[in-house]
């Protein structure tokens, strides 16, 4: 089947097998290896990407289901002026250890902050609850998202002053 998917703002048309998973399309066909492949059962969440702005586990989405849609990966998070505040937060607060869960965590955090710019610790924990981190115990990930929220709010306040 031929599909056209916009990934990180760039349109890609490919012939794919109907059974091809989105995670494999992104990694193997497009070379976007920031999307990790873990359990194949949607339990771990390391394959999380955005599909039309909503976090999804790409190991449970067929590539053909993304035809005509917008897909966001960790490679698309960087802004023209540098790292996204979520990426900065993960660096500043040591929100990553081995890095395996990091791309999915960051995309989920970005979606949360886009909807709720000042989430509570509980709201952050709930947002990332579909992903497993085997290294950090989540404390530094939660701190990273709070850091991003606070710094994003401060940056917006500077612009409006």
TrEMBL record:
<dbReference type="Pfam" id="PF01799">
    <property type="entry name" value="Fer2_2"/>
</dbReference>
<dbReference type="InterPro" id="IPR001041">
    <property type="entry name" value="2Fe-2S_ferredoxin-type"/>
</dbReference>
<keyword id="KW-0411">Iron-sulfur</keyword>
<dbReference type="GO" id="GO:0046872">
    <property type="term" value="F:metal ion binding"/>
</dbReference>
<dbReference type="Pfam" id="PF00111">
    <property type="entry name" value="Fer2"/>
</dbReference>
<dbReference type="GO" id="GO:0051537">
    <property type="term" value="F:2 iron, 2 sulfur cluster binding"/>
</dbReference>
<keyword id="KW-0001">2Fe-2S</keyword>
<dbReference type="InterPro" id="IPR036010">
    <property type="entry name" value="2Fe-2S_ferredoxin-like_sf"/>
</dbReference>
<keyword id="KW-0479">Metal-binding</keyword>
<dbReference type="GO" id="GO:0016491">
    <property type="term" value="F:oxidoreductase activity"/>
</dbReference>
<dbReference type="InterPro" id="IPR012675">
    <property type="entry name" value="Beta-grasp_dom_sf"/>
</dbReference>
<feature type="domain" description="2Fe-2S ferredoxin-type">
    <location>
        <begin position="1"/>
        <end position="77"/>
    </location>
</feature>
<keyword id="KW-0560">Oxidoreductase</keyword>
<comment type="pathway">
    <text>Alkaloid degradation; nicotine degradation.</text>
</comment>
<dbReference type="InterPro" id="IPR036884">
    <property type="entry name" value="2Fe-2S-bd_dom_sf"/>
</dbReference>
<keyword id="KW-0408">Iron</keyword>
<dbReference type="InterPro" id="IPR002888">
    <property type="entry name" value="2Fe-2S-bd"/>
</dbReference>
<protein>
    <submittedName>
        <fullName>(2Fe-2S)-binding protein</fullName>
    </submittedName>
</protein>
<dbReference type="InterPro" id="IPR051452">
    <property type="entry name" value="Diverse_Oxidoreductases"/>
</dbReference>
